[in-house]
């Protein structure tokens, strides 16, 4: 029973009102010089040379559901959060992300979220993707719940830009929250640029293969976690390179092993992601 309760609390640990201090998730680092073309292609149609400068505001919604397959039955949990974010990108690839507001699950007291308003992360775009980000102040809840949403707002573009019909590949290794534990996750992503149906925009579609493995010891005994799965993201860009919206989904299959009692619990985590561009305030 103790093991069951500990595993059942893993997802909720990501939104604990009193989390252990932790630094920002590890930045995505290229394995071979950043986003690189997968193969030569013949392209035509819409084109975006680079992510364009601007001051953009988004409402980002993330929904995750976790299902644990115990020998005696199934346990399910849900984690929803919504962040209102401001993204400022300069012509020199300087990047600033501001957390205007965060709404998290009912289990998180509102008094623990209000101090997060106004946290700022600064950094640059490196090789077409977000580089290391420095927070204006340390706040574990903001980095667990809001920062992962912010870093998914911008797609990784190759140095030559993206044109309808082009494909390229990108490989990253980041620290990501998986059932309540920060695990090193490798994502190998195949990108495709295509014309957005009925819009003068370019769609960037990324399909990733995910693998992660690590150990969580936050419940007094080591729990070994191995995960694999897929991710899909679609971003819409104007010809000037500004993001107008994004959406996607994740699916992870996991094995949670507790060596001290010889128990293994299969689990699945399903996620949905939506980013909606908001009009500039008047």
Write a structural description.
The protein has 282 residues and is mainly β. It has a single domain, classed as Lipovitellin-phosvitin complex, beta-sheet shell regions (Roll). The protein contains 3 helices and 15 strands. The protein has helices spanning 2-8, 110-113, 140-150; strands at 36-37, 47-48, 54-70, 73-89, 94-103, 120-126, 129-130, 134-135, 162-163, 167-178, 181-195, 202-216, 223-237, 243-258, 263-278. Strands 1, 3, 4, 5, 6, 7, 8, 10, 11, 12, 13, 14 and 15 form a 13-stranded antiparallel sheet that branches. A hairpin with a 4-residue loop joins strand 4 (73-89) and strand 5 (94-103). The N and C termini lie far apart (56 Å). The model is unreliable at 5-33 and 38-43 (pLDDT under 50).
Strand content: over 45%
User: How would you classify the helix and strand content by structural class?
Assistant: mainly beta
CATH-derived architecture: Roll
Shape: globular
- First-last Cα distance: 56 Å
Quickly list its features.
single chain; 282 residues; mainly beta; Lipovitellin-phosvitin complex, beta-sheet shell regions; 13-stranded antiparallel sheet; two-stranded antiparallel sheet; 3 helices; 8% helix
TL;DR of this structure?
The chain has helices at residues 2-8, 110-113, 140-150; strands at 36-37, 47-48, 54-70, 73-89, 94-103, 120-126, 129-130, 134-135, 162-163, 167-178, 181-195, 202-216, 223-237, 243-258, 263-278.
List the helices and strands and how they pair.
Elements: H1 2-8, E1 36-37, E2 47-48, E3 54-70, E4 73-89, E5 94-103, H2 110-113, E6 120-126, E7 129-130, E8 134-135, H3 140-150, E9 162-163, E10 167-178, E11 181-195, E12 202-216, E13 223-237, E14 243-258, E15 263-278
Antiparallel strand pairs: 1-10, 2-9, 3-4, 3-15, 4-5, 5-6, 6-7, 6-8, 10-11, 11-12, 12-13, 13-14, 14-15
């Amino acid at each position: 029973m103790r093991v069951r309760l500990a595993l059942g609390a893993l997802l909720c640990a990501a939104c604990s009102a009193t989390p252990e201090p932790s630094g920002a998730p590890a930045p995505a680092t290229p394995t071979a010089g950043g986003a690189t073309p997968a193969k030569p292609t013949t392209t035509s149609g819409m084109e975006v040379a680079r992510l364009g400068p601007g001051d953009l505001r988004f409402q980002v919604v993330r929904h995750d559901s976790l299902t644990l397959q115990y020998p005696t039955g199934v346990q399910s949990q849900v984690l929803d959060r919504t962040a209102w974010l401001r993204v400022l990108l300069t012509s020199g690839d300087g990047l600033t992300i501001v957390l205007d507001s965060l709404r998290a699950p009912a289990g998180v007291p509102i008094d623990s979220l209000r101090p997060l308003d106004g946290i700022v992360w600064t950094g640059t775009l490196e090789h077409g993707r977000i580089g290391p980000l420095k927070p204006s102040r340390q706040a574990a809840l903001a980095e667990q719940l809001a920062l992962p949403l912010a870093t998914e707002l911008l797609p990784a573009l190759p140095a030559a830009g993206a044109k309808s019909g082009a494909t390229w590949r990108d490989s990253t290794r980041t620290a990501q929250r998986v059932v309540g534990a920060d695990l090193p996750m490798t994502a190998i992503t195949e990108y495709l640029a295509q014309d957005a149906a009925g819009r003068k925009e370019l769609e960037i579609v990324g399909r990733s293969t995910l693998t992660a493995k690590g150990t969580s010891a936050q419940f007094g005994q080591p729990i070994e976690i191995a995960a694999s799965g897929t991710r899909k993201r679609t971003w819409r860009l104007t010809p000037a390179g500004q993001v107008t919206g994004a959406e996607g989904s994740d699916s992870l299959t996991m094995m949670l092993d507790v060596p001290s009692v010889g128990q293994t619990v299969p689990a699945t985590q399903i996620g949905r992601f939506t980013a909606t561009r908001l009009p500039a305030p008047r």
